[in-house]
Amino acid sequence: MNLHNTQLERAQLALQGLSIGDAFGQQLAQSEQLSTLLEDRIVPAAPWATTAITASAVACLDDLRQHGTLRTHSLLAARPSEAAATALLLGAFFADDFTGIGNHIKAHTIEEGTALSALALAAAWAWRIGQGAAPDFVTLIDLVLEYLPQNSISTRLQHANALSPGMPAPFGAAWLGNTGSDDTREIAPFAIWCAGSYLNDYSGALWHTAFAQGALTANCAIVGGIVALATGAQGIPHEWQQNRVALPNG
């Protein structure tokens, strides 16, 4: 298999995990029995529709498939949660070349760029961890922080790294400042913390993330994309894969 096809397989895996997380979160967010579903971990009824977050990721994958690169305006024109989704696919595509990630991240502010870079790096490292190609005894956040400048985003990730293992998501969200906005600067630290806490457990990661509510759909989409890169498609429950509606181009 040539390099381009290998890169596309990783990006497709990220899209699969992201789109199912997106649809799962959206279905929960629209439910009038949200508290009951979360408390008892009741899987919402199918079909699960996706949102503009997935549509943005699909468009990104099309760019990567056709050109091996991303249109320069894509990240700048996207809404925050859609830019976050695009960053994940970039991280998956360039998981074996961090220079490629840095060359493609475009943002309006330094902090936004740091948040997008953090998400792309989290995706890249999740895939490497899943392949057994990451250092032992370090967290996902440790690996991401190594490549980030010092600013408010990296500080919040450092705070996330200090949270006690098993801390309930609402407490983590409050500590990290996740207020329910779909601003990438809020999504990134919380989502990377959630993903890193359950990197080998796709459904566990999504339930943990959803329990915080807030920007439920965006958070679940991003966490789903990161964790799927570590677990592979086989780590996503078959029922959940069947519940999500079909995507364009399969």
Walk me through the structure:
The chain has one domain (3-243): ADP-ribosylation/Crystallin J1 (ADP-ribosylglycohydrolase fold). The protein is globular, with a radius of gyration of 16 Å. It has helices at residues 3-29, 34-40, 52-67, 74-77, 80-93, 98-104, 110-130, 140-145, 152-161, 169-176, 184-197, 202-211, 216-231, 238-243. Helix 5 (80-93) crosses helix 7, helix 11 (184-197) crosses helix 13 and helix 12 runs antiparallel to helix 13 (216-231). Helices cover 66% and strands 0% of the residues. With 250 residues, it is mainly alpha-helical.
Assembly of the depicted chains? single chain
Secondary structure tally, helices? 14
Tell me the distance between the termini: 21 Å
What's the domain count?
1
For the sheet with most strands, the description reads: none
Structural class: mainly alpha
Helix and strand succession? HHHHHHHHHHHHHH
Quote the average pLDDT. 92
In CATH, the homologous superfamily goes by the name ADP-ribosylation/Crystallin J1
Binned strand content: under 5%
Gyration radius (Cα, Å) is 16 Å
At CATH level 3, the topology is: ADP-ribosylglycohydrolase fold
Let me know the number of strands. 0
Helical amount: 55-70%
Overall shape: globular
The residue ranges in which pLDDT falls below 50 over 5 or more consecutive positions are none
**What is the CATH C level class, in words?**
Mainly Alpha
Which short descriptors sum up this protein?
250 residues; mainly alpha; ADP-ribosylglycohydrolase fold; 14 helices; 0% strand
